[in-house]
Design goal:
Helix content is about 40%, strand content about 25%. It is α/β, with parallel strands linked by helices. It folds into two domains: about 15-175, 2-Layer Sandwich (Endonuclease, Chain A), CATH 3.30.870; about 200-380, 2-Layer Sandwich (Endonuclease, Chain A), CATH 3.30.870.10. An eight-stranded mixed β-sheet has the order 9-16-15-14-10-11-12-17, sandwiched between helices. Strand 10, helix 7 and strand 11 form a beta-alpha-beta unit. The chain starts with 13 loop residues before the first strand and ends with a helix. The structure holds SN-glycerol-3-phosphate. The site of SN-glycerol-3-phosphate has 7 residues, from loops.
Length: about 375
């Protein structure tokens, strides 16, 4: 059995947190414009539109000046990337691969998705986070806001070499997809927390078929939490282990807060399905905030001074099926920045109380029961624990 990938902590890295498309999209564009050797992109959501047109122009120009440009897009997440756009990528010299294209006869195999979001430039700079190349993420409205509230991380330093390995591995694996070995889940040894508090970074992954190291790392951090566990996700349907660890931490006095989406969401049923956990979480002392201004799409966790940011929603569904990638960080500057970002978002959120739960309207309760029941049945039917 092939060993699951294992990435140690690396020292001397530099980070920059970029909040929302109006901030990170121009930086992504600029980095790709300046590429001299390689641009490697692994993304879930990619669709035709203004943002793709801008990216295409940069990639085509890069390929024309001799930069090796590789795009690995998920076959489902990129279904709205038009045929013309695919064609012009090919024609401009960009190497293009699709992870697990949807197949009418594929059955459950269609559910395995590459959900990672990773952009590498010259093997020197990595961008990791939750974005795709869609207008909702990248193109601001007249008020200067992008519809989806998102974070991306710019990383430089030794850990980038690990991201290069991650991309290369998936690029090769996608090419020889046929005849994959059967799924076999195993535990991965989590490297111990290193000494120090600056510039430390580690690649953390899940491959739903073989390992969920990213979740193991989260659970082990929460189990050791002393002060705070703040977790942001747009799709909050976690498994019982994560719910239990959050409640245990809250009961022992840790400040546990969830930052979730409010009514502005692309999947209202998922929000209702997750709300069925609110009562027990609130009773355990977990504070729940629903972000109001826009669609909150962040996937960020802060446990004391440990930060994890990337593609993982920590919901049962995607952890079971997907490839996910997060950057785990210990760095005092990043801790402060992430803390401030959470504080800003909490201030723009509605906080739930047990009183709110008791006073919920019956139509709302009905939706929670309906979508909660459907979600539970789907998990049982698909054998998701
Ligand atoms: O899967 P995410 O978290 O990248 O979000 C994309 C949505 O699934 C699109 O509906």
């Amino acid at each position: 059995m092939a060993a699951a990938p294992y990435y140690p902590w690396r020292e001397n890295n530099r980070f920059e947190l970029m909040v929302d498309g109006h901030c990170f999209f121009p930086q992504l564009i600029q980095a790709m414009e300046q590429a001299q050797q390689t641009i490697d992109i692994e993304l879930y959501l990619v669709e035709s539109g203004q943002s793709f047109n801008r990216v295409f122009a940069i990639l085509a120009a890069a390929a024309a000046r001799g930069v090796r440009v590789r795009c690995l897009f998920d076959g489902a997440g990129s279904r709205d990337l038009g045929e013309e756009d695919r064609q012009r990528l090919h024609e401009s010299g960009v190497e293009l691969r699709f992870y697990n294209p949807l197949n009418l006869w594929g059955g459950r195999a269609n559910l395995h998705r590459d959900h990672r979001k990773l952009i590498l430039v010259d093997d020197q700079v990595a961008f990791i986070g939750g974005t795709g190349f869609t207008d909702d993420f990248c193109i601001p409205d007249e008020a200067g806001h992008c519809l989806w509230h998102e974070q991306m991380l710019r990383v430089e330093g030794p850990v980038v070499a690990d991201w290069v390995t991650v991309f290369q591995h998936q690029w090769d694996a996608t090419h020889r997809r046929r005849g994959r070995p059967p799924a076999q889940l195993h535990r991965v040894r989590i490297p111990p927390r290193p000494e120090g508090s600056e510039g430390l970074a580690r690649v953390s992954l899940t491959d739903g078929r073989t390992h969920r190291e990213l979740v193991q790392a989260l659970l082990s951090s929460i189990a050791r939490a002393e002060r705070k566990v703040w977790l942001a996700t747009p799709y909050f349907v976690p498994g019982w282990r994560i719910r239990r660890s959050l409640m245990r931490a809250a009961r022992r006095g840790v400040d546990v807060r969830l930052l979730l989406c409010g009514e502005i969401t692309d999947h209202p049923p998922v929000r209702y399905a997750g709300q069925r956990y609110y009562r027990r979480l609130l009773m355990a002392g977990v504070r729940i905030f629903e972000y109001q201004p826009r669609f909150l799409h962040l996937k960020t966790v802060l446990v004391d001074d440990w930060v994890s940011l990337g593609s993982a929603n920590f919901d049962r569904w995607t952890l079971h099926w997907n490839l996910e990638a997060n950057q785990n960080i210990i760095d005092s500057g990043m801790t402060r920045t992430v803390e401030e970002s959470f504080a800003t978002d909490f201030a723009e959120s509605r906080e739930w109380t047990l009183q709110d739960w008791r006073e919920l309207s019956w139509p709302h309760r009905l939706k929670i029961r309906l979508w909660g029941g459907i979600s539970r049945s789907a998990m049982v039917w698909l054998g998701i624990r």
